[in-house]
Structure formats: C-alpha cells, structure tokens
Design brief:
The protein has helices at residues 11-22, 36-46, 62-71, 87-96, 108-125, 132-143, 157-169, 175-182, 186-198, and strands spanning 2-7, 27-33, 50-53, 77-82, 100-103, 173-174, 202-207, 215-220. The strands form two sheets. Strands 2-1-3-4-5 form a five-stranded parallel sheet, sandwiched between helices. A three-stranded antiparallel sheet has the order 6-8-7. α1 (11-22) links the parallel β1 (2-7) and β2 (27-33). It is built from nine helices and eight strands. The longest helix is centred in the middle third of the chain and has 18 residues, at 108-125.
Length: 221
C-alpha cells in the first residue's frame, strides 16, 4: 500500500483530495496537513511515500515546504496540487524536485493516473545503484503528462484508460486476458500494453511453459 500525505489549507479541498486518493486501489491517506509546518511535522513522523502539496499555504509556501523536505532527507514523491498557473512557479517546482504538477480543479482519474506514474517512477529506481534503463523508466513515468497522452497512431484515449484500469486491478495479465475482458483483438490489446511498457507505466515479464514462444505478462510499474 502506498502512503499519501495531503497538504492543503482549505479543509473541504483537502477532504476532497483525500477522498480521491482513498478511492484509488493501492493508495491510502495517512495524514492531512493544513499548513507548511504541520506538513513538515507529519512528513517526518509518518514518512509517506507520496505528498500532495499545495503551493499557497498560510505559513510556509508549498515551494518552501518542498525545499525543506529535500533538505531533511525525505524521499517522498511530491505532487504539487494547486490553482497556481504562473510559469515561474511551475519551473521552481520542477527545479525543487516535484515529480508532477496538477492544476485545480481536476478529475479524480487524472490525479490517480499521476499518482500511479510517480509510484512507478520511484519503484523503477529502487535503492542503491541503478542502470540507464531504470533511470529512463523513472523519468518517463514521472514526467509524462498523461497515461494516454501522445498515443501512437491508431490508439484511442478511451481504450487506453480501460487498459490502464485492467493494469490497476490486476497483479498480472496477458494481452489475451486484456482482449477477452475488453472485447478487443489480441493484437490491439498488446499494442496498448506495450505502449504502457514503453512509457514506464507497466512492466513485462516472460512466462515460460509448454511449446512455442514464452507468454508476455504485464503488470503496473
């Protein structure tokens, strides 16, 4: 289970965002903070995997909180969640180590896709030394603007979301599984799955057994 700290000075907004997170499989809200100092205290106490962080807070600004988190050694993936659209603020968030920047208001599915993306990036890196392939997966997963954005020609956003839903709800599935559940041709289902592998949002492994080629099995990154 991926732990999430929600930081927003608006009680109703914080509650809504916490609800969005709780509705996502594999994520749980472990704390809600209404200001920067509380966010830093809870981050130190709870050591969350992810932090949803507003830019405008009544004491420390969100960018200051982000900087303090990094100074204090927090490895949490930070997703800026804000109504602030100023380009300089976005650049500062990126420079400070934020892995996503989401502009309010947004749909629950959009937030969930980004949470999965950041979690996939962190998992791709793991601990200790890593290799270029893992680094590329991590950067691709963290920075992609949408799971179904920039799809290859012939793939649709709506079907991509359905395939993502299968990945979210399955520990392991094949192109045949996806095709049967969604009513797609097997080759079509595989194109979507391979697209998500290429963007770092899914992983593939080979299952050997019997005659013929090994079966490709897919799961969320």
């Amino acid at each position: 289970m991926t732990s999430v700290l929600v930081v927003d000075d608006d009680f109703m907004v914080a509650r809504l965002h916490a609800r969005f997170v709780e509705l996502a499989d594999g994520f749980e809200v472990v704390g809600v903070a209404a200001n920067g100092q509380e966010a830093l205290r809870l981050a130190a106490d709870l050591d969350p995997d992810l932090v949803l962080l507003d830019v405008h807070l009544p004491d420390l600004g969100g960018l200051d909180v982000l900087a303090r988190l990094r100074e204090e050694g927090s490895r949490a993936g930070v997703v800026m969640v804000t109504a602030e659209r100023d380009a300089d603020t976005v650049r500062a968030a990126l420079a400070g180590g934020a892995m996503q920047y989401v502009v309010k208001p947004f749909e629950q599915q959009d937030l969930v896709e980004r949470l999965h993306r950041v979690r996939g990036a962190l998992r791709a890196l793991g601990d200790g030394e890593t290799d270029q392939e893992a680094i590329d997966r991590a950067f691709g997963a963290a920075r992609a603007s949408s799971g179904a954005a920039a799809l290859p020609k012939g793939l649709s956003r709506e079907t991509a979301r359905l395939v993502e839903g299968l990945l979210d709800g399955s520990d392991d599935l094949s192109a045949t599984d996806a095709a049967e559940r969604l009513g797609l041709a097997r080759v079509t289902a595989r194109r979507y799955l391979e697209h998500f592998v290429g963007t770092g949002q899914a992983q593939v492994r080979l299952r050997y057994g019997g005659a013929g080629r090994p079966e490709r099995r897919y799961r969320r990154a």
